[in-house]
Amino acid sequence: MKVNKVHHIAIICSNYQISKTFYVDILGFKPIREVFREERNSYKLDLMVNDVYQLELFSFPNPKKRPSYPEAAGLRHIAFEVDDIAETVSYLQSQSIEVEDIRRDEFTDKRFTFFADPDGLPIEIYEK
Question: Which of 15-19, 61-65, 118-122 has the lowest mean pLDDT?
Fold first, then answer.
């Protein structure tokens, strides 16, 4: 088996409009296409991340809560690389987003921190 790259990351949200605003207006991801799938009563929004990666945002009626704390088995978090972590943290806080204290990776010596999307999905920002 030969894998070329990660094609996309899919996220199910509990409030489509709030999550759409978060990922498009606050994080700045570019909408590619948005469709409403009537048979599922579900929106699907494809977003481009820095013209390289794709994120899919889904809405479904009454999705189950995602267990996060204590850590649950499965996908732990998604991480995005940034040039300047202090500048990014300042921007997120200006958008009323709570951000954890900046830490330093003991193996790479790079700085990183976490914040959450509207449904509590952990998102890491990692300094280049």
Answer: 61-65
pTM given for the model: 0.88
Residue pair 57/77 in contact by the 8 Å Cβ criterion: no
Does residue 86 surpass a pLDDT of 80? yes
d(CA 62, CA 120): 16
Residue 116's Cβ-count burial label (10 Å; 0-12, 13-18, 19+) is middle
Helix, coil or strand: residue 114: strand
Q: Which domains does the chain have, with CATH numbers?
A: 1-61 (3.10.180.10), 76-128 (3.10.180.10)
